[in-house]
Design goal:
The chain starts with a strand and ends in a 25-residue tail after the last strand. The protein has a two-stranded antiparallel ribbon with strand order 1-2. 64% of the residues lie in helices and 3% in strands. It has 6 helices and 2 strands. It has 220 residues and is an all-alpha fold. The protein is elongated, with a radius of gyration of 33 Å.
Length: 220
């Protein structure tokens, strides 16, 4: 009979892979990827409409963090489902994306309150080059820049809000999974595995010690 103690790292990896909701996280990663593309598109739309009121390209800056986030989320979905370390890395990226989404929400909300605000440095805001609008290039169409800009900002704000919610949802899933894995490991670890060895596997010693013969004792 042989007593085998389980490997804690292997148990943790197995339990993490068992409880990690891969399909649900794949939906979150896909949503984050699509939202990132939309945020970049709406930022490009804003720049085309009016360079002066383009938020200093905040949408492009925040999209950088969003891109790293959905790539990290896809990684723990398809490649390292049993690695808590990779999931922790994705957790950090989602936290950074929450900060980035909050910044983007702030700038979008500020524009909705004051559509004529310019976030570029004062020298650039006063320069005539930065006053170029889409109407300057259109020949036969008169586009309402303000209404188009407000629509782009509202759509970008909605995408940023959904992005923030998806990141918070990932954090909740991570905390729940870590708690559940810890509870299951606490139940499994105190028990040891007993491995029975078959009699055929038991080898007899190759040689036995010689038996010493003693002469009978003479009591007379």
């Amino acid at each position: 009979m042989q007593v085998v103690y389980p490997d804690p790292k292997m148990i943790r990896r197995q339990q993490w892979q068992k409880n990690w909701p891969t399909l649900f996280l794949a939906i979150i990663a896909t949503t984050q990827m699509l939202l990132t593309f939309l945020i970049v598109s709406f930022e490009t739309w804003s720049v085309i409409l009016s360079i002066r009121y383009a938020f200093a390209s905040v949408g492009y800056s925040t999209a950088f963090f969003f891109t790293i986030t959905w790539i990290s989320t896809f990684t723990v979905v398809c490649c390292n489902r049993g690695s808590q370390g990779c999931a922790t890395h994705a957790l950090v990226e989602n936290i950074l994306s929450i900060i980035a989404a909050s910044i983007l929400l702030y700038f979008d909300a500020q524009f909705l309150r004051n559509p004529s605000i310019c976030y570029w440095p004062s020298e650039m805001c006063s320069n005539s080059f930065w006053s170029i609008q889409l109407n300057d290039f259109s020949m036969n169409y008169d586009i309402n820049i303000l209404n188009a800009k407000l629509l782009a900002v509202k759509l970008q704000l909605a995408c940023a809000a959904i992005m923030l919610f998806s990141c918070v949802l990932f954090i909740v899933i991570y905390i729940y999974t870590a708690y559940k894995v810890r509870q299951e490991i606490t139940v499994i670890q105190p028990h040891t595995t007993i491995q029975l060895v078959a009699p055929s596997q038991i080898q007899a010693p190759s040689s036995l010690p010689p038996i010493e013969q003693q002469s009978p004792t003479n009591f007379y």
